[in-house]
């Protein structure tokens, strides 16, 4: 008789302060710039991560708002709260943002911090943070849980971005909780989809129009030849 038992996996013990110190020293020894990690007295540590923004869809930002200044950042001024007007905007493809975070900073907080820096007012649930790894000539993506600590992953992988890098992408549609979005957000999303659909149709029409012109030109040339 086969009996299925649920076996709880033993969770690895968290590293001690001494182990963290050794890992940080090893990490900093490989750093070729000034972006070092720093150990605090309480065992936490701080450092830098780079996040690649690979967003294929436009994001929603406040309309008519100037870019955030250093003064606004220091005073924690939220420019998005100054207007209710919204507009859609494409972030530069594969833009890179460098963040200074703590070992206690979660994936959820990284996503919210990135959206705040770019003044994106879309629901954070629309986005997900992935870790990108290169293995045997292949690029692999793995979605990170919201409770994961990116700086710890950076520490384990070392400063080499070929071994590990972070990417902000759209969340999978199947995991998005649409009920959490407001009516204006859903309407804006439909407008974006409608725009993308029209652009795709125009691309297909232009493709076959060129094909039609070439075919007509070939037939015209063939009629002019003897035999």
TrEMBL record:
Asked if the Swiss-Prot or TrEMBL record annotates the protein with the keyword Plastid, the reply is no
Keyword list, A-Z: Apoptosis, Coiled coil, Cytoplasm, Cytoskeleton, Metal-binding, Microtubule, Phosphoprotein, Zinc, Zinc-finger
Q: Where in the cell is it found?
A: Cytoplasm, Cytoskeleton
**One Gene Ontology molecular-function label:** zinc ion binding
The SARAH domain, residue ranges: 175-222
> Could you name the domain of life of the organism this protein comes from?
Eukaryota
Q: How does this polypeptide assemble, per the annotation?
A: Interacts directly with activated HRAS; a RASSF5-STK4/MST1 complex probably associates with activated HRAS. Interacts with KRAS. Probably interacts with Ras-like GTPases RRAS, MRAS, RAP1B, RAP2A and RALA. Interacts with RRAS2. Can self-associate. Interacts with RSSF1 isoform A. The RSSF1 isoform A-RSSF5 heterodimer probably mediates the association of RSSF1 with HRAS. Isoform 2 interacts with activated RAP1A and ITGAL/LFA-1. Binds STK4/MST1, inhibiting STK4/MST1 autoactivation.
Any one GO cellular component localisation term in the record: nucleus
InterPro entries referenced in this protein's UniProt entry, alphabetically: RA_dom (IPR000159), RASSF1-6 (IPR033614), RASSF5_RA (IPR033623), SARAH_dom (IPR011524), Ubiquitin-like_domsf (IPR029071)
What is this protein identified as?
Ras association domain-containing protein 5
